[in-house]
Description:
By secondary structure, this protein is mostly helical. Helices cover 71% and strands 0% of the residues. One of its GO terms (molecular function) is metal ion binding.
Amino acid sequence: MVDGIWKPIIWKDEMSVGVAQLDDDHKGLISILNRLGEALHDDGDTRAALTLGFRALSQFMRVHFAREEHAMRAADYPGLAGHHPQHVDFIEEMTDMAARFEAGSDGDLLEDLVLYLRDWLINHIMVEDMAYKPFLSGNSDAHRAARDFSAANR
């Protein structure tokens, strides 16, 4: 945030990893982040925003990470072994923040969450995920794996 004012993140073509389902997942993350960012300046219930935010992130990101890694395996992406721990770290960070929330620590938690997600989005998607783009974007096996992925079948 600049000067404490939330500026929504707008999807741009340069954010694309070249696989439609993964791009759609990233757009979904941006949507969740923007809703949480807007909640920073609403006079609404911070607990309600955090409850919805943690629920959405928990479900959404687990499915996204599994889909992304499934596509990476299908493309024989050599960086998967280094990429997976970043997903684990993200889930652990969300689990820690959710535990703080459940323990009654609202304080700056919404702002902490928004800042973490924004930084993670910029660093992970725009740097780490872009590293797999050349391996996945033109790979029909990766596209098929992402398209046909089902969280129920993993």
